[in-house]
């Protein structure tokens, strides 16, 4: 076994007995060059928001994959004339983003959570722009599309707020 008497006169190292398991993990991670912060102060409701996002992204993806024509009709209040391949590809992309959300939900790494939030924010911003341009081209503004645009602005605001608060450095007392 390990001889404790040999380490009594050594400076504080990762072999000290006074550390808890998280301190061991943190010291090993620091030695390996990882930026894992096990005591990261998360904003209130962050994990709930990521869970909500993961569920919404998954449901939307499955709807786009299974019922592409109906999804288009609900948003744009028109029957789709082209093939449904593009909407199914959209569903596949959304499903990929939902997998990122599910991964972000279960990680303790601050950087991964930040990238998860940033990818979500980029999605909302791009979807807002694409939907707006499409509605201008169509010349119509159905209620469902207005609701979609307003929800994207709201989701973008909440996601960027969490991204900002997670990235802030804690105040020194």
UniProtKB/TrEMBL annotation:
Cited InterPro entries: TP53I11
Keywords: Membrane, Phosphoprotein, Transmembrane, Transmembrane helix
UniProt topology in membrane: Multi-pass membrane protein
UniProt keyword annotation of Transcription present: no
Regions that span the bilayer: 46-67, 87-105, 117-138, 144-164
Compartment(s) where it occurs, according to its Swiss-Prot or TrEMBL record: Membrane
Pfam family, one: p53-inducible11
The keyword Ligase appears for this protein: no
PANTHER family from the UniProt entry: TUMOR PROTEIN P53-INDUCIBLE PROTEIN 11
UniProt-recorded name of the protein: Tumor protein p53-inducible protein 11
